[in-house]
Amino acid sequence: MENKVVGVLGCGGAVGKPAVTHLLKKYSVLGGQRHPIDFGSESFQWVQTDFEDPQSLRNFCEKCDIVVNTAGPSSKIRDRVARCALEVGCDYVDASGETIFLDRHEPIYTQSKQAIVIGAGFEAGLTGLVPYKLVKDFDHVDEAFCYCGSRQRISLSSLVDLLNSCFIDSGFANAFYREGEIVPHVVPGEELFNISGFRDEVYLKPYVSNEVLTMAKQCNISELRWYHAVAELETMGIMNDMFQSVNHVADKDFQYALVKRYQKVFDAITNTRPYFNTVFYDLKGLKDGRPIRLGTTVQVKESYEICGLVAACTAEHLLKHPTCHGVSWACEILDPDKVLAICLETGAISDFRTVSLDINEEAQGQSFVPQLEDGEIA
């Protein structure tokens, strides 16, 4: 057992529990939340903590070497846990952290000697980390398509964050990345696609997040198209409804009523239809001067468990390699092979396989990419 204390805020939640379970294999864990919880280990201690109470939060952070925030909704907590951790000299890991990315140029982050790692979850997190492994099979990747979709229970906290993500600068909807530029890309909402690895046909919603944009540039991918793969028209309707609600974002009662209505729809879907969590990557490029195309399917048992494991792996990485400081995405610092090995060993990933694809076959959704003339910028 290493002589370090890892604080996990939200330790009893769907993300916090797998994070604590993994960390207890090597570290003492201080669990923070309002209500008591027991993990059956002498290395675990619960401390009553309320993120809305600054003194309670400070008392928690002062007892830790590193703080992992798995509590939610992140759109409500924002950066208050991160700021408290940095003030007492702790490194900080956030399973979400989009608002921290938007504020990353503030002095508290740019002048900090501590590490602040965000996007240590599933999406952002594992889905952005996998391409760092896949590009090793290429000398250069010309095109990358990613399709990420699921049908699973979704918590009220996650729905609140999903709604609020529509109203912050978290990425680029109806767009893709090409050679340093964001290009408009609209896929007809009524068209179904048959994507490898998915149990059902899906609708596609193009979206380039800030994390994915960072990954594409670091992996030297010339063109990247990222899609949310949606199996139900009801879900597509919810996504469109959320974007149309932008004028009511400040109305908390309206938000709550909207989220409760959405939760009923999602519950009805998941109670009557099979679960799935699937990611499919389609990469095309060059290897030893020859064109190759590889498809990789990732089947996930439960995305909340993945979030917890990635957050725990990030904390473990920082404790072993205390070199980075400032704000980073988890995918920028983690070893994808190590994280994937842990996810496969625990069963959080049920299948991970790569196959060769026809180099001449068109990728799903590609026909809707606008063809630009030479020199034209979208």
Automatic annotation (TrEMBL):
Residue stretches making up the Saccharopine dehydrogenase NADP binding domain: 6-97
A Pfam cross-reference name: Sacchrp_dh_NADP
Signal peptide range in chain numbering: none
Source organism, top-level taxon: Bacteria
InterPro entries referenced in this protein's UniProt entry, alphabetically: NAD(P)-bd_dom_sf, Sacchrp_dh_NADP-bd
Protein name per UniProt: Putative saccharopine dehydrogenase
Organism: Pseudoramibacter alactolyticus ATCC 23263
